[in-house]
Amino acid sequence: MESSLKSAALLEQMKLHLKTDAGKDITKKIGLVYQLNIAPKKIGVDEEIFVVDLKEGKVTKGPYEGKPDATFSFTDSDFLSIATGKMNPQMAFIRGAMKIKGSIGAAQKFTPDIFPKPSKM
Prior knowledge:
Structural class: alpha+beta
Order of helices and strands: HHEEEEHHEH
Strand content: 15-25%
Radius of gyration: 13 Å
Number of strands: 5
Helix content: 25-40%
Number of helices: 5
Shape: globular
């Protein structure tokens, strides 16, 4: 996945993680599709779109064909903070650091627990 975003490296790890037994458990448990709109600096500007498909256990670049269960928009640094557990997703949402479209129930299942634990980033 060609990208200038730091998040792309995490999503690349996620792709490998979903092929592991732990990743397959996540796919079974959650079974939802998330679209991530990640902007370098400002939400809505020059966003790169990734899809984390927890129905099929894969991560792809580009918009989802169909309707994702939830779509998130955030900046590169805020996404990394949330994914690594440094920022609470609820606080990010309240402060406007993260925007959500779609099912709030589905969005609540998108937690730092689904991401691989960072090794060296």
